[in-house]
Structure formats: structure tokens, C-alpha cells
Amino acid sequence: MAVISRTLLLTLLLALVALLSASSSSTSSLFAQAQPQNDNEALLQKKVSRLEAKAAKNKGVIQLDSLAFEDVMAKPRNYSMVVLFTAISPEFNCVPCLNFDPEYKMVAAGWSKLANKSQLFFSILDFKAGQAIFQKFGMNSAPSVLYFPSSSSISGDPSQDRYDFGKSGFQAEPFAAWLQARSGIRVPVQRPFDFMGLAVKVLGTFTAVLAVTLFARKGRKIFTSKYFWSTISMIIIFVMISGHMWNQIRNPPYSMPTQQGRSGFIASGFQNQFGLETQIIAVLYSLLTGATIGLIAVVPRIENTVGQRAAVWVCMGMFTLVFSILIQVFKLKNPGYPFTLMFR
Amino acid sequence: MSTESSSTVARVLKPTILILIAIVAISSRLFSIIRFESVIHEFDPWFNYRTTQHLVKNGFYDFWNWFDEKSWYPLGRVVGGTVYPGIMVTSALIHNVLHFFNFPVDIRNVCVFLAPMFSGLTAFSAYLLTKELKDSSAGLLAAAFLGVAPGYISRSVAGSYDNEGIAIFLLVFTFYLWIKAVKTGSAFFGLLTALFYFYMVSAWGGYVFITNLVPLHAFTLLLMGRYSNRLYVSYSTFYAVGTLLSMQIPFVGFQPTRTSEHMAALGVFGLLQLYAFAELVRGYIPPKQFRTLLKGGVAAVAVIASFGLTILSFSGVIAPFTGRFYSLYDTGYAKIHIPIIASVSEHQPTAWTSFFFDLQMLIFLFPAGVYLCFKELKDEHVFIILYSVFASYFAGVMVRLMLTLTPVVCVSAAIAYSTLLDTYLETSEHVLASTKPVIVAAPPAPAVIEAPTAATSEAKAAGKKAAAKAAAAAAAAAAKSTDADAKAQAKSAVASGEKKRFPIFNLDSRLLVILQLTWFLFMFAWHCTYVTSGSYSSPSIVLASRQHDGSQMIIDDFREAYYWLRKNTKEDAKVMSWWDYGYQMAGMANVTTLVDNNTWNNTHIATVGKAMSTSEEVSYKVLRQHDVDYVLILFGGVIGYSGDDINKFLWMIRIAEGVYPNEVKETNFFTPRGEYKVDHDATKTMRESLMYKMSYYRFAELYGGGNAVDHVRNARMPAEGPTLSVLEEAYTTENWLVRIYKVKDLDNLGRDLKDSTAFDKGRVRKVSSLKKK
Asked: Checking CA distances to B255, which of A35, B105, B389, B556 falls within 20 to 30 Å?
């Protein structure tokens, strides 16, 4: 009995010692680690200040290449990064990249004026400088914007780290709103005052006023002439009835390359059209209207019998021909349409 | 033939032709009734039908105060204050009159045939309108065109009991009365315009078009220096009476004094009063003092008006543009801010094919008619020109507004066509004898130009000395002449004498033109019949398809499902569905709905969208919160009906995301390649969404396990279909078009519904789930 109790006591003692030693060793290791972490922090601090300097040099935007990207992305980091993957060089002919570039830079410039600018850095990685990174992220289209939260923050929904151009568009405001929603940091957008636009407007108004005062008589004649107004009205009507507003809203391509015998300027499908197609239709309509007006207004003015007959035949011929072409074009859009005029 | 006897013949012919046109207009709208049966065919009109039934059954006052607790559950809807009651009151009136004379006509038939009947009246008003612009032969052509033009038929076939059915008649007739009022300057016609305007306000939201077009006409006439007492009397009568009357409709209320849509009318009214006052003062004081007074007055009015407007709009008394209206001007606005507006197919822009499809040859005769209006350019022609330009813009922005363009296209094309006929049918004696103003093609003499010139610049640069001088001179000249119109006409007659017109000399030219034109008319008629019969007469509640042997197959799943709901659910059952089917369900199945076609509450619709697009657990909470008993969806995968809910699903997601951005995300429904897929490639979120599960539940079983193909999306479906635990299938119609699911009650043993379902299926519960408890 006593033996057992003694051994028990011994083991207890042993355990106590072990525990103590363990705790002391852990504290010692803590002390030992403190030094490198301080180093790390100093390094990080250095990196941040370097980044700040870089950003300050370039109006808040850091230009990256593959190496710099890896360096900047290295963990741990106490800042968030926004990276714009783009291809600005003219040989890529990336129009959206060019469109988005000034908007992106505007947001970055606005950000760099704030006090908490070291929380978040804006950077640009051009395809030319960072092909490796493009490959690493599987980017096969530009522009793309990715958000990299700081390593300490709880990264929320990683599926939202890519900015959706298709949905939100290329404007600075929705981009900043996305960034704010994603990072929780308020990102203001201050559009720089458009001096150029103002100058153009002022100059334009001035010129217009000048022109009106200088050519008051002539101008007045133009503005009160019904030919002027009738021309404008007719143009508006032709533009509208040939489906121009559809193009405005839907932004279809102007035309497509012709392939497999399908013409490239008439879109297939009843509710679809190309830019060129509407122009063709507008021309057809105006020819038809022109022929009608010719028959009404021009023909009865011709005194010469032969001339009049010729004019009637020309107008009516044009009318019938263009109308048949129009129906033919319509049949392309709506293959089931049963009527034809001249062509089968 | 002597002129007398020919006029007698014309007197008999005209009414006969008009009656024939009305008969044609009515009968060409009956395809759907003859092919199927006399029922309301579309989705939206079921609400109108239901309210009309209520009105007939319970009387006007009960209708006016009706609170409908069966829609927008749990919110309910104040029907009297949120509808345009015109169409319901009209049908109830017709119904009651017929019953008074002991014609026991069912209200359903009155509703079904209302739009075709009114189309006859529309044709007649087009005749009247065009007669004011040119002559009665052009009027007859316009009536015939409007009677059969597909652009108007599209919304007025029998069985489509919608506001537009009577509204287009009211639109055209109000415009006729307005032109008559401007021409005669009589307060009587101004009053009639106001009365019919009131009727229009009570019938359709499109009345805003009248409220803006008429003031625009008045304003343009003012700018052209055509101010006259006729204009003053007609516009003031119309505006004062019309606005007061329109405010009697509860849905409109105080809008005419507040919203920007109505401000133009108010502004022009004020301007006309000021102008008239200035005219009055001018008569009493010498010109020099008057000029000083005018300058001061104009400046004071401008300052006061701009101050007032700024203060009012900033303090919120004047509301900004409402969303639907705003989307007409800034076409990108709706897409970004209000997906619910963008989601309605009627609000899509118009492709050129739609113009041609709806109006065929009229669409290019129309500009020629506008050209002829410019040649005449009397007050009423100015109106038609303005109408043409604005309506073609609006029709381009929104497919639905093709309806407002169609009347003016018909009128204008009729003017062009009948001028052609006049030119090529006239015999030479006729031309020499008559001085018909029809084919007068006179550029106005310089003196005529001068008057509008001065007045226009006066309005544009009121402060300018020279302009004021010229204006005074012009106004003095106008004051001297008692009737400026007569003078202008005389002048243009003189001018026309200078520019000679000759008859068409050769018979062959005449024959060529006339025969061709007649042939085109035939083609137009064929086209209209083809379009009406093929495209605008297929009802959406009954679908028809041709089988391989050519026989017709009727797909009547909607009514089957609604009938099932009516007979098999308790009276206060709440059925959730996407808003498109709300009105129909309320009308045909007599159940309580959560959302319907009256899309006034975006949040509520988004909540339904959320319930459809989230996982079972999340949406079950929503379903329980809203006391939903059944969920109804459309699924076209079996028969290839493309208008089903999976195809509308993206809109549900988008609308839900607008309100619940954290719970619903559109991107999660797209594959990494950005495709919208329902087969093996479908994303996890997609496969877990309630809508997906409901659509494809037991779908694979239909194909015996393998080779399940969705015929709408041409997708090969996985053999293992989705499982449901919070819903159970209640009913699926013959062709699987409508599927109804019952929402399960909470489990009796307090288990998770997922577990209890698994238990019922005989599966052993997993050890892990046992451990947790």
C-alpha cells in the first residue's frame, strides 16, 4: 500500500516537474521567437514604406512585373492588394483595357490621398511584364481585377475576389463600390473636375452665340425654314424606324465576317441585328419614301410628256425593286415569311 | 356623271365602307376565339377580368373600396386605388345595358369581345382624324389601315382583355377632338377633348402621352408665331377641365400637380395665360412702354419660375421622374437600377424587323405622309408631325409603345397613299377645273415666313432688342388680320398658281402606278392576315402544336393545373409562384398569391426570387414565414416550351440579388466558363436551388433512368435527379408544363425535414447524425 502511494507521489512530482519544465521551455521559446518576428515586422514595415513610396511616385498605382508580384504577394502581409491584370500595349488592341485604365487610376489616385493608404495598394500587372503570373492565375482575358486581402484578415467569400466587368461595367463608381463591399474599407471616388469639358462647353456656347449674332438673319431663316425642320424630322423618323434605338441599347457588332455563304451584315434571328444592317434598312426605307414623294411631288411638275412618262417608270420601278429587296431581306430574318414580290 | 349624283353616291358609299371596315377589323381579331374558345387568353388580363366580375357582382362602390386580401399575401392590395378602372367600368356598363334590354350576355363574353368591338370604333376615329387633315377618302384609307394593322391587332385580339384594347380608341379619338378644338376654337370641343382625356386617364397609363403631346403642340404653335384665340380657348378648356377630371382617378390623384411628366402641360398652360395677357395689354398701351413692360415682365417671370421650381423640386413637393418613365429617356438606367423593369419583355427595345412585321408597307409610306404634312403645315399638320417624330422615338425604345405609333403611321400613310391616288386617278378636266388644296405644293411666300420667324426668335431670345422689335411688328400685323389662317391660305394659293402642276399625260403611267399600288394593297392585306393569324392569335393559356401527321394537338396544361388547384386545395391556400402567373392563378384557381403581375413591390418579388433560388433549408424558412402551402412552377423541358421558369430563372436571381446581395449571387449560377448550364456541368448552387430541384424532380424517371433530355435547353440530364425534402410533389400536369409542390409541415417529432425524409425512405440514419442528438 505504502509502496503504491509512494510511487504515485513520485510520479506526481515527476509530472509536475515535467509540466513546469515544459512551460518554462515554452516561455523561453516564446522569447526566442520574438526576435525574428520583430525582424519580420521591421521587414514588413520596410516593404510597406517601399510600396508607399512607389505608390506615391506614380499617383497611387504600383507597376508590377512577375518578380515584384511575388514579392508583394509574399505572406505575411498586413495590407490588401488590388491587382489589375491588363494588356495596355497597342499590339494587343485591348479596347476595354484602355477604357478601364483611366478609371482605375482615378480610383487609385483618390485613394492615395487618404490617411489610411497603407491598408490597401493599387497595382497594375501588364501582360508584357508578367506573363508568368497571368499563366499562374489562368487569366485568359484582360482586363481582370483581383482582390487579395491581407493575410491577417478573415478572407470572406473568395469567389467574389474577381471584379465582374460584365455585370458592373467599366466605370470607376461600381468598381469602388465592389472594392468597398469586398474589403470593408471605404473607397471614395472623386472624379477630377472636367476642365477640358467645361472649356469645350464654354467655347461652344460662345461660338454658337457669336454665330447666331453674326448670322442672325441667315440663321433665323434656317431655323424658321420648314425645309430645315422637315429634314430633321425625316432623319429622326428614318433612324428610329430602322431600329437604331435597339443598337443604342444592345450594342451589337457593326458587322460580322462573311462565312459559309452567310452574309456578314444581316444578323440571323428575328430579334437580332447588326449596326450595318440597320443602316441598309434605313437606306432602303428612304429610297422607298423618296420614290413615293417623287411620284407625288416631282412627276406632276414635268411638262414634257416623254420626261414625265420616264419619271413615272423610273420611280415606280425603283419602288417595286427596293420593296422586293426589302421583303427579301426580311425573309432572311424570318425564313417562314410566305410573300415575295419580284424575286423568288 | 354629274357632281351632284356622285356626291349622293359618295354619301351612301362612305358609311357602307366604314361599316365594312369595322366588320373586317372585328372579324380579323376573332382567330383565337374561333380556333379555341371564348376565354381570356393572356396572363395579365385575368386580373382585369376578375375585377370586372367583382364589379358586376358587387356594384361600383364595393369595387371602388375593394381590398383584395387574396393577392400580395400577406400585404393585400387596395384594388380601387391602384387600378385604371376604365376597362372594367366600360364592360360592366355594356353588360348592364344589355341586361336592361334583356340580352342575357355573360360578362365573360363582354370582356372577350370588348377589344375587337373597340377596334371598330378606333377605325372610325382614324377616319375622323384623317378627314380633318386631308379629306374623307384619305380618312377611309386610314380607317382601313388601322383596322387591320398588326401593330394594333397585337394588343386587341378577342380574348386579350387589356387596357390597351380601349385605350387606343380613346387616344385617337382624343386627338381628333383636340384637332377639331384647335381648328374651330370652340370651348365645346375643348370640353369634349377633356372628357375623353378623362376616359383615357381612367383606362391606361399611356395617357401621359396625351398630356405631353398636346402641350407640345400648343407650345410649338406658339413658337411658330401661330398664337390665336382658338388655341387659347381650346387649350385652356382642355387643360383646366381635363386635369381636374383626371385627378378624380385615385391612382392618379395629385400626380398632375406634382410629377415631372405632367409639368409640361402645366407650364404651357401658364405660358399661354401670360401670352394672352401680354396680347391684351398690348392693345391698351403704346408700343414703347409695352416693350419695357414686356422685358420686365419676362425677366420677373423667369426669375420667379426658376426659383419656384428649384425650391419645389429640392423640397420634394415635385417628385422626380418615376422609374418606368425615366427608362424611356435614359435607356441604360433601367438595366442598372431596376431589373424588374428590364425583365419585362414588353419593355425591350424594338428591332427593325418588328417595325416591318407590324406595319409592312405603311412604315415607308409614313415618312412620305409626314413630308406632305410639312407641305401643308396648318396647325393640325404640325400636330401630326410632332406625333410622328415622338412616337417613332418611343416605339424604338420600347416594343410596347409600337401601339402608340401605329395610329399615326396609318393616318400618315393614308395621306400619302390617297395623295398618290388623287394624282394618278384625276382626269385632266378635273385638274383644270378644281383648285383643290389637296395637291397644293407651295413653298410659302416670303411674307409668310417672316411672321413665324419673328415670333420664334422672340421666344428664343426674349431680351434681344432687334427681336423684340420684329416681334412687335409681327404681332401688330397679326392683330390687324382677323384670321391669319385665311391669309396664309390665300398666299399659298397665289404661290401655287406660280408653280404649275400638270396632269399625268399618259394612260400607261397612270395604269402602271394605280395597278401597282392596288397590288401592294393586296399584299398588305395578305401580310396583315398572315401576321394576325400566325403570330398574334395564339393564346398563351392554351398552346397548340402540329403533330407529324398535321393534326393539331392542344396543350391545355395551365387550365388543368389551375382547375386542380381550385378543386383540391383549401379555400385560403397560399400558392407561391413567379409573378408572371399571379393574375392567372388568382383568377382561374381562386387561390391566394404572393406576387402578381402588378409589380409594385420589388422587395416582395425579390423575396419570392430568393425562395426560388436558394437551397432548401434557406427557402423553407422563407416559405414558412409566408405561410406558403403550395409552390407552382412552369417546366417546359418535356415538350420544349421555352417560356418556362428555368429560362426566367436568371431574372429571379437578378431581382433577388438586388435586394439580398449577400444571399443570392448571380455569378454562382454560372459555370467557370460563364455558361448557364442545367446538365452535368451545372454549378453546385444551381443544383441546390429550389427552382432547379422542383423543375427536374423525378425528371429522369420519365426516361426510365437514362437519356433524360431537356428539350428546351437541349441538355442531357444526369440519371440521378435531385431529391426534395421540404416539399413534396402534389400535382404535375399531363405534359409536365405545370408542376405543383406542397410545402411540408414541420416534422411531428421535431426532426430536421431532411432527416425525416431520409427516414421515411427507409434509409438508415447515418451514425454521425445519431451521435449529434
From this structure: B389
